[in-house]
Amino acid sequence: MRQFRIPDLLALMLALILGACVTMSETQRNTAIGAGAGAAGGALIGKATGSHHAGRDAAIGAGVGALGAYLWSQHMERQRQQMTQATEGTGVAVTRTPNNELKLEIPSDITFDSGQAAIKPALRPILDKFAASLKEHPATHIRIIGHTDSIGSDAANNRLSLDRASAARDYLVDRGVLASRIEIAGRGEREPIAPNDTEANRAKNRRIEIYVAETSS
User: Does the reported pTM lie above 0.85?
Assistant: First the structure.
């Protein structure tokens, strides 16, 4: 009997998955791709660690991959459309990430003044509409990430970025979004989207990013 090598098995597995994806729903397609990626990872890890159970390792990886995929449901698409309409002309970018999260990237000119964590008036109507949308779709989890420019110490920027995320969370909670749904984090100056070489570029880095995800559980 012919013995298939791990690369041959993975290539065959991925080909079958991608072929089947043509007739799948969006949710089924994302889960299948996650399972395929997990299976590939499980098989490769087993090979690297000297495991003699490539099939078992691939199966375990497939299960992990499927469970780790976020859903892009009709609710998520509706929420994306609602937020796109609500933020039109504001400079806020509303996108779907590769792992099926809804992302709002909010620029500094409507979020926070330099060195401050107080929400500016221009951001409030956007967060009001966002809170209303979140209450319509309760089966989602929210992450708010704060960022700063490079002015100031690492310690100060870490604190400031977290304070900005906290301010946005508190605003949403005050408008009826459950605090248990919201996770916050501060990245300080560690994840710039522009060089910190001019005031205009530093302003781009003073921002918050909001992610919304729906899981299968």
Answer: no
